[in-house]
Amino acid sequence: MESWDLIVIGAGVAGLAAGIYGARSGLKTLVLDEKMAGGTMADAPLVENYPGFQKISGIELAQKMIAHCKSIGVAIHEFEKVLSLDLKGEKKQVKTDKAAYESKAVIIASGSHYREIGVPGEKEFRGKGVSYCGICDGPLFKEKRVLVIGGGNSALITALYIAELASEVKIAHRRDMFRAEEALVRALEAKKNVEVLWNTEVREIKGEKLVNKVVVFDRKTGESKELPIDGVFVQVGEAPNSQQAKEASVEVDEDGYIKIDVRQRTNIMGVFAAGDVTSHPVKQIGTAVGQGITAALEAYGFIKRPYYYKQ
Predict the structure, then answer these.
(1) Could you confirm whether 69 is annotated as catalytic?
(2) Which residue among 69, 86, 97, 137 is the active-site one?
(3) Which phi and psi angles does 8 have, rounded to 5°?
(4) Distance between CA 104 and CA 77 in Å, rounded?
(5) Rounded to two decimals, what is the model's pTM?
(6) How would residue 169 be classed by pLDDT, with cut points 50, 70 and 90?
(7) How far apart are CA 151 and CA 192, in angstroms?
(8) What radius of gyration do the chain's Cα atoms show?
(9) Catalytic residue among 69, 86, 133, 261
């Protein structure tokens, strides 16, 4: 069993920030992720609200953070899935599909996954016209008709990106106003090939081999109709990847988010959490970085200065 000072579960924004500060503090640090490093940040077509970068793609920002981690000695294991956690002892044990590890402290930064809308046709046409990532699949819909579902920042960012590729973009939002930043709303209003369908729910996604239409419901009029559509981008938020933590007795709230205090501590000594998997109310790149930093410095205090940490 390999021994580390600190194991970080998740190589998204929070996990990479934790890795940087863990290594800088002198901790032998391992970051694990079942996918490529970068997390959902890498899916963002454009990031315009991270301090210091007026405009940068999510993948470029992710690459910069990954390179920073590696340059100071952080070990990043991609495509290594965590299977189980044993966190109650003095030595925390992490079992993956490739190895077994132990560490003095663990930071859970496992992030979140895209929420589904749960309508007929969504699962059947996933990858066949239904997508959850604009930058991944947007280029497949050049000069086509696209529907974006949602009303927050991610929905508008996706719509703005797709509008540069598709011939026609519709946004279906179940309310009568967006929840997104005003700058994004203004940018969307300037797009001539974008139409907003207010008070609208998607009730079904149809097609043959690929998506070719959706059924929408107008919440005000009570009417349903079919729209010819080639692609559907679901952008209705995310749900936490907290199941393994919960199974290891880490406390979560009613929505599945890991409960933390202001120092990113969970209910288990030596176990911290950071980023979108936590109950912190703001899910942004900047807040995830701050949480990752705090968690790493608290982990250092727990390991190296326990007399101070316990005060």
Answers:
(1) no
(2) 137
(3) -110, 125
(4) 19
(5) 0.84
(6) very high
(7) 18
(8) 21
(9) 133
Two tokens at 149? 């579902």
pLDDT in tens, 177-215: 999 999 999 999 999 999 999 999 999 999 999 999 999
| Type of residue found at 59 | I
Residue with tokens 């598709």: 166
DSSP summary character for residue 192: T
Examine the residue annotation and report whether 133 is marked as an active-site residue of this protein.
yes
Q: Which helix (H) or strand (E) holds 285?
A: helix 285-304
- For the chain, strand residue ranges (E) read 2-9, 29-32, 75-77, 82-86, 92-96, 100-108, 112-114, 130-131, 145-149, 168-172, 194-197, 200-207, 211-218, 224-228, 231-234, 238-240, 271-273
In the chain, count H helices and then E strands: 8, 17
Q: What are phi and psi of 142, to 5 degrees?
A: -60, 130
Helix, strand, coil % over all residues of the chain, rounded to 5: 30, 30, 40
Residue 258 to residue 30: CA distance in whole angstroms: 21
**Residue in 97, 136, 176, 253 annotated catalytic:** 136
Name the residue type at position 280. Answer: H
Residue type, 141: F
Q: Are strands 100-108 and 231-234 parallel, antiparallel or unpaired?
A: unpaired
Enter the tokens of residue 63: 């690459």
Residue entry with tokens 């490093």: 37
Compute φ and ψ for 7, nearest 5 degrees: -115, 130
